[in-house]
Design a protein that fits this description.
Elements lengths: L1 H24 L17 H17 L4 H15 L14 E3 L5 E3 L1 H34 L6 H17 L1
Antiparallel strand pairs: 1-2
Helix pairs in contact: 1-2, 1-4, 2-4, 4-5
Pfam families: 7TM_GPCR_Str (PF10326)
GO molecular function: G protein-coupled olfactory receptor activity
InterPro entries: 7TM_GPCR_serpentine_rcpt_Str
């Protein structure tokens, strides 16, 4: 659930940048998000959060081997028992009962999936933020000083949340 919560936070932040991009750069498209339709903008963050949860649950689930690998480190650094903690982590190589080392495919898929989701969010924020910033600078002469300052403060607030 922690992973899903993080996925929801980053995707909602991404949604804020997207909506701000629409409001500043593509105001003619805002008509598509009036009234009840505005709630549709929250479907992608919800789906991303569910996907994040599934990657954590099935791709990076806790195993005996992961607990064993972390046992000494957790005991030494935090005085915690790996058997009593909940965590998400990747173990990319596993040793089977014959001593043969092989890829742990589910952990590799889980990590790759989370990296792709995070990349999508970061690229969306960079794209929308960059375009919004550029548009605000380009039309700065046509806005009142108060509107420019409000837009600047809102942009800084959104950027600091990242």
């Amino acid at each position: 659930m922690f992973g899903a919560s993080f996925g929801m936070c980053i995707s909602l932040l991404c949604t804020q940048f997207f909506y701000r991009y629409l409001a500043v750069c593509r105001p003619n498209l805002l008509v598509n998000f009036e009234g009840f339709k505005l709630s549709l903008i929250f479907i992608p963050p919800f789906l991303l959060s569910v996907t994040w949860f599934l990657f954590c649950l099935f791709g990076l689930q806790i195993s005996f081997e992961k607990r064993k690998v972390l046992e000494v480190s957790l005991r030494k650094n935090y005085n915690e028992d790996s058997k009593s903690l909940t965590f998400v982590g990747g173990l990319y190589w596993q040793t089977d009962e014959n001593g043969v080392t092989h890829w742990n495919v589910s952990d590799c898929i889980g990590t790759t999936g989370l990296c792709v989701l995070m990349s999508i969010c970061c690229l969306t924020i960079l794209f929308c933020g960059g375009r919004t910033y550029k548009k605000m600078n380009d039309v700065g002469g046509t806005m009142s000083d108060r509107t420019k300052e409000l837009n600047r403060q809102l942009f800084i607030t959104l950027s600091l949340q990242v």
